[in-house]
Amino acid sequence: MKATVHDLEVISDIRTYELLKYNPISEHITDITFTTHEYYKAAVLEELVEGLSLIMCIDSYVIGFLTGFKGEVKADDVGFTGFKEDYAEDCAKKLPCPPEVAIIKVIVDEMRKCIKYHVPVGYYYSISRFSIQKDFCGAGLGKALWKASLTIAKQHGFKYVEAECSAVASTKVAESLGLRSFFVFPLERAILNGKPFFPPVLSDGLTGANLVIGEIDNYNTL
């Protein structure tokens, strides 16, 4: 169902206070304070309210969400020009927020610069990440949300879709729907003040972030 503003507030709470502890990126962050949570929640809400959001519940226990918005590739867009030696300056522009929020925002910015190389000039549908409780990764929730969002995109006349993906499970979901996945940002290249911010490999095997691209007309799963 379509998410309301109240739904988004509830989801941001769940993602921040319940799901954050399951995120492998969080495991090496020792200073997850109330302030950090508040900044993280604000970042989640900012992402969610960008456009149309969907939520899905199973027995009022498992909650997943997906949010999409219209993007556009312009002829004069500046694309990805290569990894920087240090992203501290880029992260500083995202202040005030904790470094773990800032670096994620910067990585997403870099990923979106790659879109122009894979999507023609014009409009596309952008899908943001979904979150589900860790033990329910096999419940089919993610795939159902992907299909619902792609259906909406198709109904609105979008030909191309893009998504940022930083989880092994959701990458497999995307590929099962015929989306092409590009390895864009290795965690080892997230350098802040001369040091890698993330471990090169996280506990779930994640080594970086993917950019997922697809042409909706080619999907035979909708």
Automatic annotation (TrEMBL):
GO terms for molecular function: acyltransferase activity, transferring groups other than amino-acyl groups. InterPro entries: Acyl_CoA_acyltransferase, GNAT_dom. Transmembrane segments: none annotated. SUPFAM superfamilies: Acyl-CoA N-acyltransferases (Nat). Residues 121-173 form the N-acetyltransferase domain. It comes from the Eukaryota. This is N-acetyltransferase domain-containing protein.
